[in-house]
Amino acid sequence: MSKNHAQAAEDILTLIQTISENNPRFALYQSLPRSDILDAAFINIFADIVEFSVEATRFYRKGSIGN
Question: Which residue among 34, 48, 54, 55 is the one 20 to 30 A from 18 at the CA level?
Answer without folding.
Answer: 34
